[in-house]
Amino acid sequence: MTLPVCFSLNVNDAIKSVEASRETPLLYILRNDLLLNGPKYGCGLGECGACAVLMDGRAVRSCTVPLGAVGTRSVTTLEGLGTPEHLHPVQAAFIEEAAAQCGYCLNGMIIATVSLLNRNADPNEDDIREALRHHLCRCGTHMEILAAARRAVAYVRAERARIDMLDNREADRGTSGNKTEVSP
What we know:
Layout: E1 5-11, E2 14-20, H1 26-33, E3 52-55, E4 58-61, E5 74-76, H2 89-96, H3 106-119, H4 125-132, H5 142-175
Parallel strand pairs: 1-5
Antiparallel strand pairs: 1-2, 3-4, 3-5
Helix pairs in contact: 2-5, 3-4, 3-5
């Protein structure tokens, strides 16, 4: 084991300083040093997905990422997705679909769904199933989890349509007859 080194991490849009060895799993730092309990210790091998976090918007298994490999990448945990007052659309969808029994897998399922939507704004059923297939749920709430992911996709589509509509209104205002020409 190497001697501890001071690291500055960008976690949930805040710079955090920690002292640990380069080989320390990111999961240990998040849970033990930064007291973030979204990512869970499941298998310690990167197999179950309970420890998933977003690193620069993509899901990674934090139990297999050594601290020294994080560098300047942005890390987002379940706690960094939304607030109790303003949930992330994926968090809201999982709550509305009651997609949890024991809740242990929920962190990984939500992070995987957010990661999918970060890279594919309009995923189909096969895309959703592929994104979630390596995340284990031992309680058997797979149907509710899939329903929550579908609902999250619908929320993101609706939000995109709302933004497009507002953008179109702004563009229409810019081209309407109220413009004044300026002579050279």
